[in-house]
Amino acid sequence: MTVPSSAPTAPAAYWCADAWLPSGPARDVRVEVADGRISRVETGVPAHPGDHRLPGVVLPGFANAHSHAFHRALRGRTHDDGGTFWTWRERMYALAGALTPDTYLALARAAYAEMVLAGVTGVGEFHYLHHTPDGTPYAEPNVMTEALRAAARDAGLRVTLLDACYLTGGIGRPLAGVQRRFGDADVHAWAERSGAVRADEHLRPGVAVHSVRAVAPADLAVVADRARTADLPLHVHLSEQPAENQECVSAYGRTPTQLLADAGALTVRTTAVHAVHLTEADVALLGSARAGVCLCPSTEQDLGDGIAPGARLRAAGCRLSVGSDQHVVTDLLGEARSVEMHERLAGGVRGVLAPSALVDLLTRDGHLSLGDVAAGQLVVGARADLVAVRTDTPRTAGAAPGQLVLVAGSADVDTVVVDGVVRVEAGRHVLGDVGAMLTAAIDAVWETAR
Length: 450
Prior knowledge:
Strand content: 15-25%
Number of helices: 14
Number of strands: 16
Structural class: alpha/beta
Radius of gyration: 21 Å
Helix content: 25-40%
Oligomer: single chain
Largest sheet: 8 strands, mixed
Shape: globular
């Protein structure tokens, strides 16, 4: 079921003409690596004989804090008839109903390899394809999770498996159609199944609430308690669409954010995804909880969701991160840049978020939202995740190293090192032609869907 992946052993040391340290850009940086961790960092030093010289500016590995890997098969296939988020969702459901463990593995492997090409070293997979299309559990209840584990291993990144509790098709409505494959019998069945997932070097368990439309308040509290007792990250789609807010207020007399807070599901472990349509009270609640907020600008643009109040959330105390979500593009540098560009469009002012803040949400803070405190910084003891972004391409030529995040994109990523192992060099993944992998995987899925 898996394709063996091999990668060259990492060199003992990397030399960077420019590297992004916690204090910002630094010159002539030498990074030594042992057992997948950074063992020494020196600045202002020449390269030693045998050092692996990295081009451009070297950043810590990127975190893609919100992914639905199977959505990658929708790219370029949903734009022919306009519509809204809700009409797009029907296309997504058709795709969700067609996947098998084998086609899911092939698609996720290719999607993850594309992420690594873009500099991603850790991904938060918001996972709700749990059962067969009619809702019957597989003989191995977590076989779809195991496909994601294998995909992460083969592609060469780490996945935080955000196992989503998804119990209703809307507030007070049963699951219908393909939604049945998303749902367990009840919240306790979800907890038992998801609790059987074990961690290894490729997969870290986490939990998720699909949304307040899909999990009732009493069940929210059960998920929140599991996150607390097991010290797991908890992610939730929050206020992506006005209809979600209206439905929640009508049913419960509270906004989705207040509902989460009342259920104990709003803590420093929580990451709210999208958080577009918030009241000022919602922003204050998220900030006072020191919750994370994952912004997905390319998806929010593509689906017409709106512009999230990222700067206000950050000022209130939230930790920001970014995700590629439905993978309309896989460009985490572009997602980070778009957070600032959305602020400029909304407020008419430039420089709301400094380049250093954008690097933080792309790296350190993104990994924190995934429960990985050892990733996202070029410091001794951290994971040896390095991303070399070229400064001599038509897009980046002439850019100051400290402003590279505002101009570079995935096509400018040259070398990617994950846990001390080179996975991408000269813009090529060790697995080979990722475009061909994606084409084969996507064609196989849609052939089944027909």
